[in-house]
């Protein structure tokens, strides 16, 4: 069963490293038979949050915002590739997701965190779990965390070295957990059984 999974990434930095992880996750999910699509906050380029998508009347939201709302609403699940910025959330990714709310409801999300140092973005992952749960998503329990991202991929974008090896080893369980929740949520939505 093919699933539609959006992979969100939010760095605006010139020499951003996490894009390698986001692209690799898209390819790895596609290799499992799912339709994975990258949502790059820098490419979408929404302004700093002033009005959410739901604050606009039908047909009046900016085109890029409306197009992404449709993609989110059509998706079965999400992966948030979360870099750790000063021990917290990546501002570009947070700004992107804050433009939406009802589109995310009752769908599962997984968090893949990373950092330049040895702690693999764990503090950002913890903060994202709280944020995504508050937005109505079920956040999976299996982490995917990558330390020392600057050296974890080779020039072809494939995982390399010890940290890349850990990523390859951890990914199947991470993806299996997300896909189990996607299938469960799809079944409930198909039966038109909202949780409340």
TrEMBL record:
Q: Which residues form the NADPH-dependent FMN reductase-like domain?
A: 5-142
Any one GO cellular component localisation term in the record: cytosol
Pfam families per UniProt: FMN_red
Q: Name one GO molecular function term.
A: FMN binding
InterPro entries cross-referenced by the UniProt entry: Flavoprotein-like_sf (IPR029039), FMN_Rdtase-like_dom (IPR005025), NAD(P)H-dep_reductase (IPR050712)
- Under which name does UniProt file this protein? NADPH-dependent FMN reductase
